[in-house]
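Quick one: structure tokens for this chain, please?
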Amino acid sequence: MEGVWVRGRHTKQGLLEFEIIEQATQGDIDAIRYILDFFSAYISKLATRRLYDELGMCQVVVDHDLKSRIESKLISKILEFKLEY
């Protein structure tokens, strides 16, 4: 299933192609960036926090420190991943 490209993001995403995963596990920076972009919305959702201001109003924000840590962990796991043929 091919995704539709909208403002640099996919909608109705399918699966990542095997070739992209294979290249990323071998250290290809462009493939790793593609995977990070592929999961960007999901990672942002995971890093979303509710903060309350001094008036008690709820603000929903992305915790960029947490998002960065999730992305770093994903990169390290991609590089550790071993494909079996």
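The first strand starts at residue 4 and ends at 6.
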